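Input structure tokens:
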């Protein structure tokens, strides 16, 4: 059985890796300006300045695109909570602290740009958006929360492993939301944001991989805990379940995407099912991750069946509604 290392020991052991990965990130990243991706000429004053307040007819986005854009924005809005969480677990000293601050600065652009786009284009109700922002930030966030709402002991491994999956999931969600918008400016903006998220994911993924080499059993305990209880950071958003269904049925983020584009690529990169350095309970946890993958596969099939039935119901309702409109116009 491998000896458990303290977070302080792990921080020191991993600091050279973090410095190397931070320097790589700074070479690879491309700075961009949120204002360059906002169609300012589409904007006009609201009622308080003599203009017109928002009306649902002004939105050019579908229900799926609106729901996904707002969900993505509210997720980004909780940045102060995320900063606090990673700062507490990753330290603000040396290369760790430089990364935490750089990551926070880059992430902050996302919320700025998304909100400006939605308000300027009148894609969603700005009053409701502000109310949701305040509610979401008041609720806060902790990645160390399981499905029963209980807190488990958070650690450095919990943080870097959770954020690896979360950043990849966010990248995929932003990219698919851009496509769902069917609007070139939104698509460009969300491509730019998803490129940021991808570089962030690569940093955390590679720090986690180095941690797996240093303390494999300890890292496996965190990996198993994170994946068995995984929730996206937007789960605290009001009416999250309903919105998640809309987003899933719309093909932005569903169980198949979660398994094939988020969970499996990371597990394969870390060679989780090929490594032979897990012992005792950690080895049993690795085997249980194989069971989890099978459970996720079953959930994908169940979701597809439910989605098909839902789409058929919606098609019949739309057909019925269209028939009534034709009948009323003919009479």
């Amino acid at each position: 059985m491998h000896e458990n290392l303290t977070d302080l020991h792990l921080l020191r052991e991993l600091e050279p890796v973090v410095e190397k990965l931070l320097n790589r990130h700074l070479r690879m990243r491309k700075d961009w300006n949120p204002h360059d991706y906002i169609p300012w000429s589409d904007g006009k004053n609201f009622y308080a300045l003599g203009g017109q307040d928002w009306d649902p007819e002004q939105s050019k986005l579908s229900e799926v695109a609106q729901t996904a854009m707002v969900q993505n924005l509210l997720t980004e809005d909780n940045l102060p909570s995320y900063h606090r969480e990673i700062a507490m677990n990753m330290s603000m000293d040396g290369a760790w602290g430089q990364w935490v601050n750089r990551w926070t600065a880059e992430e902050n652009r996302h919320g700025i740009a998304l909100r400006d786009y939605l308000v300027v284009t009148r894609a969603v109700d700005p009053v409701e958006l502000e109310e949701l922002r305040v509610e979401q930030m008041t609720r806060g966030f902790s990645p160390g929360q399981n499905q029963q709402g209980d807190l488990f002991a958070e650690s450095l491994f919990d943080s870097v492993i959770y954020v690896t999956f979360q950043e990849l999931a966010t990248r995929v969600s932003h990219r698919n939301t851009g496509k769902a918008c069917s609007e070139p400016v939104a698509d460009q903006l969300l491509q730019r944001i998803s490129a940021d998220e991808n570089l962030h994911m690569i940093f955390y993924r590679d720090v986690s991989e180095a941690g797996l080499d240093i303390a494999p059993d300890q890292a496996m305990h965190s990996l198993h805990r994170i994946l068995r209880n995984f929730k996206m950071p937007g789960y605290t958003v009001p009416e999250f379940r309903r919105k998640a269904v809309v987003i899933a049925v719309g093909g932005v983020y569903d169980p198949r995407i979660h398994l094939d584009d988020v969970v499996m690529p990371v597990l394969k990169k870390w060679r989780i099912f090929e490594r032979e350095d897990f012992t005792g309970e950690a080895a049993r946890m690795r085997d249980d991750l194989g069971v989890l993958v099978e459970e996720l596969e079953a959930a994908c099939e169940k979701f597809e069946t439910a989605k098909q039935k839902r789409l058929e119901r919606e098609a019949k309702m739309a057909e019925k509604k269209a028939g009534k409109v034709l009948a009323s116009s003919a009479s």
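The two ends are 81 Å apart (CA to CA). Residues 145-153 have pLDDT under 50 and may be disordered.
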